[in-house]
């Protein structure tokens, strides 16, 4: 066996730019998710089950279903999103990846934001497609579907990002599911209220931009501040 | 590169009511290895994690190139590699994929470099299998390949020879020798004597 070739120890050798590092982490997470499609579809199946149980429990009458459709879509989306959040950092904490992120010389905040983007692409984006389908199945008119799509898409960004703080804080806790849900409640309830409102307005055919703008504000708050808080929480958990 | 100095002064750390690090001080220069020994629970891993800034100290400071590492933690991290007692690999990715992101997020690396680093640690066709199917020793070798690809001056290694066969342990020794001969530094927590030749080896025994 040969000795590794001596590469020169150049002080200040080129570092990977922050954006490229974040892209590598994003690509890694997407690749990992597609290696285990079972876990990938789990929140979606959960969403579908919750959404189909409502018509069975209430009434198959579309004129009545359409009244509860916003609630059905949003409660199901919120629960599915919470279900997926529990696994956001768990495996990386377990196998030492988070440690490597923390000592990589890259901004931990940036790398965690990349992980959240991957998380949204894998759960939020599919939910944004399933939301309108569910609303349509519950009797919403076709014209309402773009509004439902936009509200779920924007709202799920807020859910993914703001939820990442709770996911990071509960890293040290075994079976953190319930604690995570309780911890995330103050963030998820406003998203639920305005998300359901926007969806309802879209179905009624009235202007829904105000509610979507509020969801957008929460999403921006999440994108800008949540990774900072999550990074601080991750560092504490690594101690 | 004479300013490659890792220093620590009066490190104190408690874990609950256990006083794990009791006033540890050290100074290590380029071209030297520090071998950390001590019984289980003596604080070898804790000291390594303190040195790389993962664990916070109650008292004391760590210095790199004469400056407190807390003043430029990112710059310090860019010059060190920490490999814990478990190789930091994703079980569902292949050895190659693991290295391309682990090394790639820190410094630009080409596919050819990854291949040759894997050759050097004796990886054959198993480099394309998911890491979950590899043996503990093979995973350790992948981590060693990553370590050499990072080509940073400071290595902080926790039990690097665990699970390795005789040839693998020899590989670790050769890598350490080559690293410090190039002017690098290494702090290595081990249970047995490292057996490196022709380099300056300092020993520190942590008492529990």
Explain what you see.
The complex is a heterodimer of chains A (239) and B (208). With 239 residues, chain A is mainly α. Chain A is built from 9 helices and no strands. In chain A, helix 3 runs antiparallel to helix 6 (108-137). The longest helix of chain A is centred in the middle third of the chain and has 30 residues, at 108-137. Chain A is elongated and about 65 Å long. The radius of gyration of chain B is 17 Å and the shape is globular. The longest helix of chain B is centred in the last third of the chain and has 16 residues, at 166-181. In chain B, strand 4 (59-64) and strand 5 form a beta hairpin. Chain B is α/β, with parallel strands linked by helices. At the A-B interface, helix 1 and helix 5 of A face helix 2, helix 3, helix 4 and helix 6 of B.
Low-confidence stretches of chain B: none
Tell me the Rg of chain B in angstroms: 17 Å
Report the portion of residues of chain B in β strands.
25-35%
* Helix and strand composition category of chain B: alpha/beta
The percent range for helix content of chain B is 25-40%
Shape of chain B: globular
Instruction: Profile the largest sheet of chain A.
Output: none
Q: Features of this protein?
A:
heterodimer; A: mainly alpha; 0% strand; elongated; B: 208 residues; alpha/beta; four-stranded antiparallel beta sheet; 9 strands; 28% strand
Describe what is shown at a glance:
The complex is a heterodimer of chains A (239) and B (208). By secondary structure, chain A is an all-alpha fold. Chain A has helices at 18-35, 37-57, 62-85, 90-94, 97-102, 108-137, 145-169, 177-204, 209-238.
């Amino acid at each position: 066996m040969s000795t590794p070739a001596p590469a020169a120890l150049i002080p200040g050798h080129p570092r990977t730019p922050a954006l490229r590092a974040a892209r590598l982490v994003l690509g890694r997470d997407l690749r990992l998710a597609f290696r285990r499609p079972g876990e990938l579809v789990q929140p979606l199946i959960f969403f579908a089950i919750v959404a189909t149980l409502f018509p069975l429990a209430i009434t198959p009458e579309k004129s009545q279903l359409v009244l509860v459709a916003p609630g059905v879509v949003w409660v199901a989306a919120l629960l599915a999103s919470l279900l997926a959040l529990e696994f956001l950092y768990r495996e990386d904490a377990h196998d030492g990846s988070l440690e490597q992120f923390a000592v990589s010389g890259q901004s931990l905040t940036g790398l965690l934001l990349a992980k959240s983007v991957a998380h949204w692409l894998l759960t939020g984006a599919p939910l944004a497609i399933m939301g309108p389908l569910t609303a349509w199945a519950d009797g919403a008119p076709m014209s309402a579907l773009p509004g439902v799509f936009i509200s779920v898409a924007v709202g799920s960004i807020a859910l993914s990002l703001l939820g990442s703080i709770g996911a990071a804080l509960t890293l040290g806790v075994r079976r953190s599911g319930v604690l995570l849900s309780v911890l995330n409640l103050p963030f998820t309830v406003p998203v639920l209220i305005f998300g359901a409102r926007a969806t309802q307005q879209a179905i009624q055919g009235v202007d829904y931009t105000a509610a979507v703008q509020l969801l957008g504000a929460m999403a921006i708050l999440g994108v800008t501040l949540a990774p900072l808080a999550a990074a601080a929480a991750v560092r504490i958990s690594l101690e | 590169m004479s300013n490659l100095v890792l220093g620590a002064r009066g490190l104190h750390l408690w874990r609950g009511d256990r006083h794990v690090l009791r006033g540890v001080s050290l100074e290590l220069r380029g071209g030297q290895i520090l071998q950390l020994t001590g019984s289980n629970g003596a604080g070898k891993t804790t000291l390594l994690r303190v040195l790389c800034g993962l664990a916070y100290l109650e008292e004391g400071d760590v210095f790199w190139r004469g400056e407190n590492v807390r003043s430029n933690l990112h710059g310090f991290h860019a010059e060190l590699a920490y490999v814990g007692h478990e190789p930091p690999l994703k079980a569902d990715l292949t050895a190659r994929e693991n290295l391309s992101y682990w090394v790639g997020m820190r410094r630009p690396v080409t596919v050819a470099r990854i291949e040759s680093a894997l050759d050097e640690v004796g990886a054959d066709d198993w480099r394309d299998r998911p890491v979950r199917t590899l043996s503990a020793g093979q995973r350790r070798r992948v981590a060693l390949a990553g370590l050499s690809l990072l080509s940073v001056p400071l290595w902080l290694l926790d039990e690097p020879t665990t699970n390795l066969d005789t040839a693998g342990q020899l590989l670790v020794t050769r890598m350490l020798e080559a690293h410090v001969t190039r002017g690098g530094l290494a702090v290595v927590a081990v249970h047995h004597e490292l057996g490196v030749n022709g380099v300056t080896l300092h020993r520190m025994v942590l008492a529990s």
